[in-house]
Amino acid sequence: MYVAVKGGERAIKNAHAWLAEERRGDPSVADLSVAQIREQLALAVDRVMAEGSLYDPDLAALAIKQARGDLIEAIFLIRAYRTTLPRLGASRPVDTGVMACDRRISATFKDVPGGQVLGPTFDYTHRLLDFMLAAEGEVMPAPQAEPCDAPMPRITGFLDRDGLIGQEAPSDDPPPDLTREPLEFPADRALRLQALTRGDEGFVLGMAYSTQRGYGRNHPFVGELRVGMVAVEMEIPELGFAVEIGEVVLTECETVNQFTGSKTEPPQFTRGYGLAFGHSERKAISMALVDRALRWEELGEDNVGAPAQDAEFVLAHADNIQASGFLEHIKLPHYVDFQSELELVRRIRAEAAATSAVRAVAE
Amino acid sequence: MTETDQYNFAYLDEHTKRMIRRALLKALAIPGYQVPFASREMPMPYGWGTGGVQVTASVLTPNDSLKVIDQGADDTTNAVSIRRFFQKTAGVSTTTRTTEASVIQTRHRIPEDPLREGQILVYQVPIPEPLRFLEPRETETRKMHALEEYGLMHVKLYEDIARHGEIATAYAYPVKVEGRYVMDPSPIPKFDNPKMEMAAIQLFGAGREQRIYAVPPHTRVVSLDFEDHPFEARKGGLSCALCGSEESYLDEVIVDDAGGRMFVCSDTDHCEGRRSQACTEAEG
Looking at the structure, do residues B119 and B252 belong to the same domain, yes or no? Predict the structure, then answer.
């Protein structure tokens, strides 16, 4: 006998209680603290801050804990929290040129003023499992050098001086805000960069990779990659000057791309730009490549029909919160739609069967 | 402090509500036109009714009585979840009775009982653009709407007839509103399409796609068809196993391992109403 699906409310409540229990795991194993996540899973925290569009390592760590390590779920928690926060104002543009760099490398010049600083990187490590970590061995402190106070001017500045790289038109227009206005096309570069920096790392990586494999190739060199702390300043109207309200860690990537010239421009290098919260190199480099691919129109290049050149395609599908929500909604009941399809298919099949029966008799 | 105090009434802040209400007014002024709005991230996933929830949050007043249905039923899990959300954040009274509700949020169905003036029906919409699967580009489809260029849609419907002998769209069947805009009625079965000419206000919210549209009361809503292939809101000629209704839309339920089936009303309130009425009549 059919039992009407009642008790949805109790089922939901119990499912959530079970989830809480699963999240905690075996109670005989020590509970993971938010501080431990913040300190020891720092790159996960950085990704959640970047794609959650909220710079708060403690909240990001909490979200990771609550989400059982599912980073997209954690990003979702951060986004849902962020959207409720009041807007007090906008900071001044941060100056990454005076960033206190932990890491700064250029792939275009062997040496540059300020030097090549490797910083804490996975690059050149051998990816061998370190069983010492499983044995909870303590880490030896890294050797320390004197702090380097030399300025680290932007690499693209040197190319700029020689007129070898395309000029970007300066603008004091307030940039559009993706989180306060609906995304509409065509999207200008500021809006595209905004969408890319909060876009899914995997998606942006895939798009960037596709350009490297020939789908809208744009010959990128990492002109510079820098990771470090920058000051955030805000104009306080009552004071009439800007005050520093905090610091954020950013990863910035400027790519230098070949450009063969167009009807209006002589051959020169062009830029792709990537910027993300935290230490997020893969994201920043990917973003720079995709940014460059999306600039085909303003640079007078051909649209070769590559996915990474298609702003509507890239921007409409980069957001993992939108994507995963819509993807997973197909778990919701669809029996009304399915029933109407079922009836349609049955009817069309019955009609087809009747027609072929008539034809068989006729033959 | 209760949960109702921690958030603004109905969760959204008043500035956001004002922005959404302006979009709603514009939508009502241009029936069937998709108004872009700055959809917010909600504490439930995109695709799970965030558009409908934002619209409901913006029109809800403390005296409202809210009904939430999914697939026609009040007790489906997501309907329960959304109803609880508004109980928590707005503290409004809720009901399962179509006639008693002032605001009804729905996914995939229009209630069987006719709605009256003063009621608001809020639809959750996954893909607001009826032309989307014919033309994936928003820039193109907006142009097509602006120019009232709906040839592509008619070609699609014609091709259906050529291939299957009938229009093979069973739900989200496109409609033309007040003789101007072609509109997606959200994925309701086409059985429900004729109900869209109603006395209540119909509001459509698509959160992920950032669009709001509306059908004001007593607006002409015509399902697209051809003179020689007129639109037909049909359903299988069966009746509900619980209340016996022959007019309502039915869900098919598999009841045993042999694939035995029964059919029951998808609108649970309608079904319960008919059964309790039958009981009363039997007793009386």
Answer: no
Task: Tell me B196's DSSP state.
Answer: G
Residues B217, B243, single domain; the answer is: no
Q: Do B264 and A351 touch (CB under 8 A)?
A: no
What's the total number of domains in chain B? 2
A185 contacts in chain B (CB < 8 Å) = 138-139
Domain shared by B156 and B278, yes or no:
no
Q: Is residue B229 part of a domain?
A: no
CA distance B23 to B213: 8
| Full residue range of the structural domain in which residue B267 is found | 235-284
Residues of chain A numbered 186-205 and touching chain B (CB < 8 Å): 186
- B76 shares a domain with B7: yes
Q: Tell me the per-residue pLDDT of B36-83, one tens digit each, with 9 for 90 and over.
A: 999 999 999 999 999 999 999 999 999 999 999 999 999 888 999 999
State whether B175 and B254 are in the same domain: no
| Any domain includes B123 | yes
User: With an 8 Å Cβ cutoff, are A336 and B109 in contact?
Assistant: yes
CA distance linking residue B279 with residue A193, whole number of Å: 64
Rounded to the nearest angstrom, the minimum Cα separation between A311 and chain B is: 10
Residue B230 within a domain:
no
In sequence order, what are the residues at sequence separation of 6 or more whose Cβ sits closer than 8 angstroms to the Cβ of residue A7? B75
Distances (CA, A) of B65 to B11, B58, B162: 17, 14, 47
What's phi and psi for B243, nearest 5 deg?
Answer: -110, -10
CB contacts, 8 Å: B212 with chain A: none
Beta-strand pair A100-105/A220-236: antiparallel
pLDDT of A228 > 80? The answer is: yes
Domain end: B199, B223, B247, which one? B223
Per DSSP, the residues of A61-100 read HHHHHHTTT-HHHHHHHHHHHHTTS-----PPPP-GGG-E
Give the mean pLDDT of B6-26.
Answer: 93
The answer, yes or no, to whether residue A335 has pLDDT greater than 90, is no
Assess if residue B228 is contained within a domain.
no
| Facing residue for B80 by CB, picked from A8, A179, A335 | A8
| Residues sharing a CB contact under 8 Å with residue A16, sequence separation 6 or more, in sequence order | none
Q: Are residues B25 and B143 in the same domain?
A: yes
Any idea what the CATH number is for the domain that residue B81 is in?
A: 3.40.50.11310
The pair of three-digit structure tokens given for residue B275, joined into one six-digit string: 């059964």
Of A183, A295, A200, nearest to B138 (Cα)? A183
Does residue B277 share a domain with residue B186?
A: no
